[in-house]
Design a protein that fits this description.
Order of helices and strands: EHEHEEEEEHEHHEHEHEEHEE
Structural class: alpha+beta
Distance between the termini: 5 Å
Strand content: 25-35%
Mean pLDDT: 98
Helix content: 10-25%
Number of strands: 14
Shape: globular
Length: 262
């Protein structure tokens, strides 16, 4: 049975509750994974999304920061969470579908502005997060699993508006890309979006600082859908909903979707 999954860094689920509802009504994914909910779980507007058919939810919340949630039209069970890098942040939650496949929803630290862990603690935390991801997947290699989320790295040259100009900018530095790829390889994950769309520029984030984000188009592909090798053949239909960046009061990220024949 086809399952369509969407991932979206919403940058405050309470502030953008209406945008989430609009996405659920217009796209009707079977599963929606949100990051940066910026809310304790008891204040996440679960009832609004349940009224649209999303009766099943697992979440980890945090007041004002971080936060991840998985909403589903199909039954899911809480499959736990990991405190990657020991940050005590709500940055990971997993859900298990009835078919046994597990969905990991991950929000990697952005890493601040200076790509040097000696000068910038946040950058070190980001690298440590990926190292813990790598070690976790090496110790317990995932099977029949999907990992989605705001991973805050644009790994490929076509994942940023200018490879040369971005090489020293956090999210595209060589050391971040190396850590990102080590974590991906450790779990045997495949980049579903790029398997479907191997060529050309792809972005899922545009800065709020741009006066006209659409015309400037200085984007980055920070949001990802990965699948273990045993699910790659079942994946298709990847899409990035660029137009959502133009909705009123948007997040700086847009949803990324993929479908799996599970």
């Amino acid at each position: 049975m086809p399952l369509t999954l969407a991932t979206w860094n919403i940058n405050s689920v309470r502030l953008r509750e209406g945008l989430v509802a609009r996405l659920l009504q217009e796209e009707a994914p079977d599963v929606l994974c949100l990051q940066e909910c910026k809310s304790p779980v008891e204040k996440i507007p679960v009832a609004t999304f349940a009224a649209l058919g999303y009766h099943h939810v697992v979440m980890r919340g945090q007041k004002g920061y971080n936060g991840v949630a998985i909403f589903s039209r199909r039954p899911i069970e809480d499959a736990g969470s990991v405190d990657f890098a020991g940050l005590n942040h709500a940055r990971h939650v997993a859900a298990r579908l009835e078919c046994g496949a597990v969905i990991h929803n991950v929000y990697v630290p952005a890493g601040g502005d200076i790509p040097d862990r000696e000068q910038n603690e946040k950058f070190g935390q980001k690298l440590d997060f990926f190292t813990h991801l790598r070690d976790h997947f090496r110790a317990d290699r995932p099977r029949r699993a999907i990992l989605v989320g705001d991973l805050n790295v644009a790994p490929l040259e076509d994942d940023v508006w200018s490879h040369k100009q971005m090489l020293k900018v956090v999210s595209h530095t060589p050391i971040e890309v190396e850590h990102f790829e080590e974590a991906r390889d450790a779990g045997g994950w495949a980049d579903v979006t790029r398997l479907d769309q191997p060529q050309g520029k792809l972005y899922s984030w545009w800065s709020y600082r741009a006066a006209d984000w659409h015309t400037a188009d200085r984007g980055r592909r920070l949001d990802h859908v990965w699948a273990t090798r045993d699910l790659v053949a079942a994946s298709h239909g990847s899409r990035i909903l660029r137009d959502v960046r133009g909705w009123d009061g948007p997040s700086d990220h847009v949803p990324v979707l993929a479908t799996f024949d599970l």
